[in-house]
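Worked example

This section walks through a single chain of length 243. The input is the sequence exactly as stored; nothing has been trimmed or padded.
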Amino acid sequence: MQESPSTSSSEERFPQVWALADRISGWLSRDQAELLHEQARALPDGAHALEIGSHQGRSTVVLGSVLQAKGGRLYAVDPFIDGKLFGGSKTRDSFERNVAEAGVGDTVELVCDYSTKIRSSWTKPFQLLYIDGKHDYWTFSDDLKWRVHLPEGAAVLVHDCFSSIGVTLGVLRHVLFASDLRYERRAGSLALFRLGRPTRQDRLRILGEMPWWIRNVFVKVLLRLRLRPVARLLGHDSPYDPY
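Given that input, the structure is written out below as tokens.
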């Protein structure tokens, strides 16, 4: 089927969007950014999305750029608490500067608070959920509850899904047996789930990622023990955790 001009134009824009986002420090890889871009591009005009965990704005710029072209809005939820890992006022300053320099400041609405604190009182609808907040089991489990705001068929994207112990345990507990989430695929550790009734194959695909998750956890242990040469034997040639 021949693509519409708008679809083709949007696809051609990804390299431009990535050029803006790639200048920003963070852990979102190009293929993961492309998956975010693809899912945001599939949203209708005027759609809204919610991002949990913005850091310096790498993923924010990707999502914000697409939503800006659609006349939509991105809610960026991050507490930016001083003294916390990856947070604080300096990180917020970097986030706001990066978003402004990318030209998406009018599209991105910063919600400077804990996702777990504001979830129960949230009333604004959105059509895409991106989770990259605190990676412990309890916070991630709570962040998954934001999906109650989503329509049927909406995308739920989870970063570090199969490279974090807390997040993966949360998926095994709250997604594997859920009646309303299907697992589709991943780009690195960024997993794409979709709101809808899962099949047996959807559940088996989650279990099929477990060897890769175990490998990633083992790599993290090797890096903590400063055994990077051993990690290379597992195909990990980087000083950073797999993501």
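What to look for: Strands lie at 48-52, 73-77, 108-111, 128-131, 155-158, 181-187, 190-195.
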